[in-house]
Structure formats: structure tokens, C-alpha cells
């Protein structure tokens, strides 16, 4: 592991086809948006280093196709994942209902029982909305996950989603292993926040 890197975290982006998973990843990695973004075939993989509370971590982000024909990839996709972002389209209630199925799949295949989950309601830039913010919050509360709404097009909520997920992972004892060559720099505020809940204008740590 590279010097100066606290740890490497495996992050999954999960959800139905067409909800904007790849667009969220493109916005987070390259700060770009492609309105003609093609559907992912199989699995896409990107890495990025970010700094949270003075700790630099490398993210290995897996973006998978939502289509059924790629479900054979499932076991290896979930193995050793530290966190998962579950994405639905706020203009499509069926993609929201499918989040329950994706949560069940995580529980079935994830090898880390304390994997951190965040539900993301994407495409809030669209005028048409079928899923209210309150519905998203209620779902997150039922499953004890983080929650945020986002728009890959306008950037709204994208960076915050990844930052909040990574922060929660770092705050979770036993979920990850540190690079032995670097000190862990958990601030007092981080330790205090570990037992608390976050309910901001967009992000909710339930």
C-alpha cells in the first residue's frame, strides 16, 4: 500500500439500469457529466484518493450494470466491500421500490457484516418527481442506512455522498485495516460523531 494512504476502501455503486450510477461516478471522479452516457456493460472500475478529516484514503469504486444478465458477477462484486451506494431515480418509483431487493442482495452476498450503506435519490434536477424526499428518508430509517439526494447533472450532493460514506466507514471499528506505515488520525470530533446521527439539508446518517 502506498505511503501516506491510510487504507484502500472498496465501494460499490448499485441500482437499477438507467438510474444514473455511471453518471454519479463520472461526476465524482472527473467532475464531468455526459448526457449521452452509455449504459454500463458488465462492471466499470475507477479509483480516486480523497482526504477525510486529515486522512487520505484510496477508493476502489465498482459500478455494475443493473441488468439481470450480469447477475453472475454478483458474488465477486460484493466480496470484501466496505461500503455500498444504492441509487434510485427520483422520477421513477419502480427504481425506488427495487432498492429493497438490492438491500437484500447486499445482505446475501456481502462478506463484511458491518458494511456501510447509503441510499441515494438521484436526478433531482428533473421536474418530474415520483419519489418524495420523505419517502427516501423513511426507507433509509427502516434499514439504518445513510441517505442523500443528488444530481449528477448539477453536481448537487455527489461529493457529499461519497465523503459521508467514507467518513462513516472510517468511524466503524473493525470494518477496514489501516496501512501499517501510517498513523490513523481520528479527530476527537470524529470519535464523538461515531455515536451520533447526521440529519442535514440533504444527508442523513440514520
From TrEMBL:
Keywords, ordered alphabetically: GTP-binding, Hydrolase, Lipoprotein, Nucleotide-binding, Prenylation, Protein transport, Transport
Catalytic activity: GTP + H2O = GDP + phosphate + H(+)
Annotated PROSITE patterns: RAB, RAS, RHO, SIGMA54_INTERACT_1
Protein name (database record): small monomeric GTPase
Family to which the UniProt record says this protein belongs: Belongs to the small GTPase superfamily. Rab family.
Enzyme Commission identifier(s): 3.6.5.2
Pfam families the UniProt entry points to: Ras
Gene3D superfamilies for the chain: P-loop containing nucleotide triphosphate hydrolases
Gene expressing this chain: RAB18
Organism: Polyplax serrata (Common mouse louse)
MF annotations from Gene Ontology: G protein activity; GTP binding
Enzyme class: hydrolase
SMART domains in the cross-refs: RAB, RAN, RAS, RHO
InterPro entries assigned to the protein according to its UniProt record, in alphabetical order: P-loop_NTPase, Rab, Sigma_54_int_dom_ATP-bd_1, Small_GTP-bd, Small_GTPase
Taxonomy, superkingdom: Eukaryota
GO biological process: protein transport
Amino acid at each position: 500500500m502506498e505511503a501516506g494512504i491510510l487504507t484502500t476502501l472498496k465501494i460499490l455503486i448499485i441500482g437499477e439500469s438507467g438510474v444514473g450510477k455511471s453518471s454519479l461516478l463520472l461526476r465524482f471522479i472527473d467532475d464531468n457529466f455526459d448526457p449521452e452516457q452509455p449504459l454500463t456493460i458488465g462492471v466499470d472500475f475507477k479509483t480516486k484518493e480523497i482526504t477525510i478529516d486529515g486522512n487520505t484514503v484510496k477508493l476502489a469504486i465498482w459500478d455494475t450494470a443493473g441488468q439481470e444478465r450480469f447477475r453472475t458477477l454478483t458474488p465477486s462484486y460484493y466480496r470484501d466491500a466496505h461500503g455500498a451506494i444504492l441509487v434510485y431515480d427520483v422520477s421513477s418509483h419502480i427504481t425506488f421500490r427495487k432498492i429493497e431487493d438490492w438491500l437484500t442482495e447486499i445482505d446475501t452476498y456481502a462478506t463484511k457484516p458491518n458494511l456501510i450503506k447509503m441510499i441515494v435519490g438521484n436526478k433531482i434536477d428533473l421536474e418530474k418527481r415520483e419519489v418524495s424526499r420523505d419517502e427516501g428518508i423513511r426507507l433509509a430509517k427502516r434499514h439504518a442506512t445513510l441517505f442523500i439526494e443528488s444530481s449528477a447533472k448539477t453536481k448537487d450532493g455527489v461529493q457529499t455522498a461519497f465523503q459521508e460514506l467514507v467518513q462513516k466507514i472510517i468511524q466503524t471499528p473493525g470494518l477496514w485495516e489501516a496501512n501499517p506505515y501510517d498513523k490513523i488520525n481520528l479527530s476527537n470530533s470524529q470519535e464523538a460523531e461515531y455515536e451520533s446521527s447526521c440529519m442535514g439539508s440533504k444527508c442523513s446518517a440514520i
